[in-house]
Design goal:
mainly alpha, 314 residues
């Protein structure tokens, strides 16, 4: 009897089409957000009382417990589910954690220094994008939607201000840990890990996948008037991961972006610096042009270094 040639076992995830994978990941993420949101609401109600729970939902910043309640809500209802969802998806659904999470540290350490340089030099470009974004307006027929978006963003600003009232260095370090590190890890595992990998397999074009993921990343934050700069950040993060093969490069970049904003805000609140973090008219046109040129050079060096080439060779 002639035996059929044996075949190597196929990964479980290969049986699920990329489109269906995207649906599953989105559904899983939404489910985790709902479940963790209910858990967070229960904890806030038990610890601080139902009045504080109501004030947290309505962003009533007059409540003395609102800061702690908002941090509880942020960590349990947002950061935690965004971290758990891609882990469950990669480990138990597609069963390819190495490919979908890319949690390897096998990359040239000099990439971290190049990322630091890119993030520093990108400040003028981000300022331009913020200013352009602020001038965007929806058509007159969508004026109602624009008003809703502005109201939502104003509420988000109020919540952020309540959470980031930092009176001590310890307050600042706690904010750096949560907003900087934990948020960076959770969002990068979800977007540049699982979702970007799905988009690459779906589109078969890594560049398109990076841009699509960046747009979805920005849309997820539901902040229309900072949409463009967040897309740009998402594109940077996407290329960092694609060229290095490691999620930790984008986590590092994401952490630098968030932590820098926290530290600058703390220094401004303590009157250690006079530069208002909300001032978006710091640089001039020469700075904008120079920023673009330096970023392109640094990205070129990053790509070549990640691929094992001389940084200045094509």
């Amino acid at each position: 009897m002639i035996k059929a040639p044996s075949q190597a076992p196929q990964p479980q995830g290969s049986q699920i089409t990329p489109f269906l994978q995207s649906i599953i990941l989105i559904a899983l993420t939404i489910g985790m957000l709902i479940v963790c949101g209910l858990i967070a609401a229960g904890i806030i109600g038990l610890v601080f009382g139902t009045k504080t729970l109501g004030d947290t939902i309505s962003f009533n910043t007059q409540n003395p417990h609102i800061g702690a309640a908002l941090w509880t809500l942020q960590i349990i209802s947002t950061t935690l589910p965004l971290f758990i969802a891609p882990l469950i998806f990669a480990r138990f659904i597609v069963k390819e954690p190495a490919d979908y999470l890319k949690a390897t540290f096998q990359f040239p350490p000099v990439l971290l220094l190049l990322i630091l340089s890119i993030m520093i030099c990108s400040s003028p470009v981000m300022e331009v994008l913020v200013n352009v974004n602020q001038k965007l307006a929806l058509p007159a027929s969508l004026k109602g939607l624009e008003d809703i978006l502005r109201a939502m963003e104003a509420q988000a600003v109020k919540a952020t201000e309540a959470m980031l009232q930092m009176n001590t260095v310890w307050d600042m370090l706690f904010a750096v840990l949560v907003v900087g590190l934990l948020t960076a890890i959770a969002e990068e595992f979800l977007f540049r890990g699982a979702l970007q990998t799905i988009m690459i397999r779906l589109t078969k074009n890594p560049h398109a996948a990076i841009w699509i993921t960046a747009i979805l990343f920005s849309a997820f934050h539901m902040e229309f008037f900072t949409f463009l700069p967040r897309v740009a950040l998402g594109v940077f993060f996407g290329y960092f991961v694609m060229w290095s093969g490691s999620i930790w490069t984008s986590v590092w970049a994401h952490f630098l972006n968030n932590a820098t904003q926290v530290v600058i805000l703390y220094l401004y609140q303590q009157k250690k610096i006079t530069l208002d973090p909300n001032d978006q008219h710091v640089f001039n046109y020469q700075s904008y042009a120079l920023s673009v040129i330096i970023i392109l050079i640094l990205l070129f060096m990053y790509r070549n270094t990640a691929k094992g080439k001389s940084p200045l060779l094509s």
